[in-house]
Amino acid sequence: MQPESSGYAAQQALRLATRYAMDAADEDGHWMGPMLSDITITAEWIFLLQSIGYQIYEGDRVAYRHHFLSTQRSDGSWGIAPQYAFGGNLSATIEAYLALKILGMLPDHDAMKKAREYVLSKGGVAQMRMFTRFHLAMFGLLPWTAVPQMPPEVILLPSWFPINIYKFASWARITIVPFLIIRTREPVFELPNGRQLENDYLDELWCEPKRKNVPYSKDFLSLWRTDKVALLFHIADWILKLLCFIGFLPFREFAIKLCLGWLLERQEVSGDWAGIFPPMHLSIYALLLEGYHMNDKPVRLGLAALDRFCHKDEKNGKWMQPCVSPVWDTFLMTRALCDAGTIDLNDDHLTRALRWTCERQIFVKDGDWRVHRPQLPPGGFSFEYFNTWYPDVDDTAAGILAFLKQDATSLRSIHVTRAATWILGMQNRDGGWAAFDVGNDAFFLNSIPFSDMDSLCDPSSADIVGRVLEAFGLMLRLHSGSKEGSEGSLFTSISSACQRGIAYLEEHQERFGAWYGRWGVNYIYGTSNVLCGLSYFSDEPRVRQMIPPALSWLKSVQNADGGWGEGLDSYIDSNRAGIGLSHPSQTAWALMGLLAHLSPKHDESIARGVAWLVVGQTDIKAQGEASWPEDVHTGTGFPGHFYLGYTLYRHYFPMMALGRYVSALKECQGSKGELER
Q1: pLDDT tens for residues 220-267?
Q2: How far apart are CA 240 and CA 243, in angstroms?
Q3: Long-range contacts of 81-87 (CB under 8 A, 24+ apart)
Q4: Does the domain formed by 35-320 have CATH 1.50.10.20?
Q5: Which UniProt keywords apply (predicted)?
């Protein structure tokens, strides 16, 4: 396909996609696509409903069961993502089985039989992950002695202490605090067969149901040989058990009281905690264990917030979302519509969307980030509807880009300058940026007994650095040549921060030319973000050295069909980087990376990628509207452990890629009008 004809086809695809996007907008102008994850989130929601004695109506039971059964794999297991190459996940399968049993599915159902066979073939319940241990212990399906100690006294430790609650990443911190209360109180809730301290409700999944007090770590000698930090933590765990046994914990109740106050302080007026499911449902347990009742306001609001996270559709049934992403989706869809060039930049769809996001910029002084940056003025954005305590750098940078792409004159608006100032203050010593925290790199915490996902820290990541550089680079470009006003010092600071960010990227480029994607799968995502960011600094010698290997790598992993894809196995083995079936979001990321530095006029890789997207726009919603089908998870929660299916990734990223392609073609041809067939 010649560039001219492919440009015309891309324009046609963009028109269809634009109508689809406009139709998907909420009445108030924002976008929010349902979010998918693995089955454990919905299972743990069912566990909470069972624990509080909530009667699930039959219609919802059917919808929940549909969701479970529609995601079960052919071998009877449930996985951590639809495309996971390493088969099912034992803990996910255990939790799904228990949830289905609570929902009334009998053990002799074919799906249950297959799940049971899978679990037993993998060693049974004894091989489960740590989160699953906690949830089974709360029903008496596992003794609490088989769960690590989690001393609430950690809340007493100051922020300068080597181990304290603020050393953990934001998502871990807000989840750990309610766990401290739950582990201390050791509750046992009722199952359909009653409340029993030693419940046999799940015995069919045990290889040895008489031996449930299974160890949660290696023996001391093995730890001495392999991980001395883990050994120290396990010695501390053993000492805590001894202190619990003899009853010598003088500050325990005081610590519990502080934990409870800490949680209540961080509950949003809407009832949410951090806008993510794990702390939200665990905090309900914690409140009830500390004497709150179902009718008390914090519990009522918390349950209402959780209920808002539930989603239901014909294809997937009913499920609990791990999070909701309205601010993120609205910024990215706005950017996509700006890139597409199919509507005027002053179109009501764009102005209403950004007006909606402006109302959600966080100017209040609450936030855990203030522990290490007490003098930094607020100004960030968070991912969700209600989350003032945990804004994130990625959202905030995406917001700057959306504001400036829609209206370049907003460069000196309070929304852009305060967002940029906040991001500047969140830069790490290594020159990079993390998602939510600053200086959060105490990796030794991942050896703690209750950690089994290696995700207790929030260090700098290349993908976020790339987006920040893109936002700051655009700000610097718009500022250059203009008269410097009172905000001149801001742009000087931005320029210095960018140099440190570039140095971070230089140090973290992989030997094969790519960059790691912490929050999207994987090297294609990271490399795309970095290349887009570096495009504003391509005149610098060290940047010119980084770009060619990255472009060569992207071209080398393009699939024969013209698209790009990458499996989750690249998080386990970097030799699998960029290898996988083609998908719309990943193809779009690769194209955006290439288009940031290459002319589309004579580039075969770009032409083939564009053709793949044009031909693949087969999700027809209505006449004149179309999108791209994508049934895989290309968002990352915890690499190797937890992945996210953003249902709008398949739409706004291809729009961005095609829009930039068309714009670049027009620039090559010196044309401002329509590209001809």
Answers
A1: 788 888 888 888 888 888 888 888 888 888 999 999 999 999 999 999
A2: 5
A3: 81/38, 81/568, 81/632, 81/633, 81/643, 81/645, 82/631, 82/632, 82/633, 82/645, 83/567, 83/568, 83/580, 83/581, 83/632, 83/633, 84/568, 84/643, 85/567, 85/568, 85/569, 86/569, 86/572
A4: yes
A5: Isomerase, Repeat
Could you report the per-residue pLDDT of 590-614, keeping only the tens digit for each? 999 999 999 998 899 999 999 999 9
Determine the Cα–Cα distance for residues 326 and 630; give it in Å rounded to an integer: 20
Supply the angle between the helices 488-508 and 523-534 in degrees, to the nearest 10.
140
At 86, is the pLDDT very low, low, confident or very high (cuts 50, 70, 90)?
confident
378, two tokens = 């607020």
Phi, psi values for residue 536, rounded to 5°: -85, -5
**Mean pLDDT across 544-570:** 97
316 contact partners, CB below 8 Å, separation of at least 6 = 36, 66, 67, 70, 71
Closest C-alpha to 381, from 416, 337, 405: 416
Q: How far apart are CA 348 and CA 351, in angstroms?
A: 5
Q: Which residues pair with 313 in a beta bridge?
A: 317
Q: Give the fold, CATH level 3, of 3-33+325-669.
A: Glycosyltransferase (1.50.10)
393-406 vs 326-340: helix axis angle to the nearest 10? 30
How far is Cα 218 from Cα 223, in angstroms, rounded to an integer?
6
Backbone angles phi, psi at 664, to 5 degrees: -65, -40
pLDDT of 481: 60
Integer-rounded Cα radius of gyration of the chain: 25
Tokens (6 digits) for 536: 């504003």
- Tokens for 519, please give them: 């929050």
Instruction: State both tokens at 190.
Output: 């009722």
d(CA 21, CA 388): 28
Residue 608, H or E segment: helix 604-615
Return the beta strands (E) in 3-111 as ranges.
35-36
Alpha-carbon gap, residue 569 to 483, rounded angstroms: 50
Domain with CATH 1.50.10.20 in the chain: 3-33+325-669, 35-320
How would DSSP label each residue in 16-27?
HHHHHHHHHS-T
Can you tell me whether residue 304 is helix, strand or coil?
A: helix
CB 449 within 8 A of CB 379: no
Instruction: Note the pLDDT tens digit of each residue in 32-41.
Output: 999 999 999 9
Residue corresponding to tokens 């891309």? 10
Amino acid, res. 261: G
Give all strands of the β-sheet with 35-36 in edge-to-edge order.
Answer: 35-36, 642-646, 635-638
Helix (H, G, I), strand (E, B) or coil at 644: strand
Helix axes 488-508, 414-425, angle to 10 degrees: 50
| Element containing residue 501 per DSSP (H, E) | helix 488-508
Which amino acid, residue 97?
Answer: Y
Check residue 509 and report its DSSP letter.
Answer: -
**Active site positions, annotated:** 394
Amino acid in the structure at residue 426: M
Using 50, 70 and 90 to split pLDDT, how confident is the model at 217? confident
Q: Using 50, 70 and 90 to split pLDDT, how confident is the model at 621?
A: confident
Report the distance separating Cα 308 and Cα 577, nearest Å: 37
Percentage of residues of the chain with pLDDT beyond 90: 86
Any idea how long the chain is? 677
Q: Return d(Cα 577, Cα 569) in angstroms, integer.
A: 8
Backbone φ and ψ for 662, nearest 5 degrees, come out as: -60, -45
Question: How far apart (Å, rounded) are the C-alpha atoms in residues 529 and 423?
Answer: 17
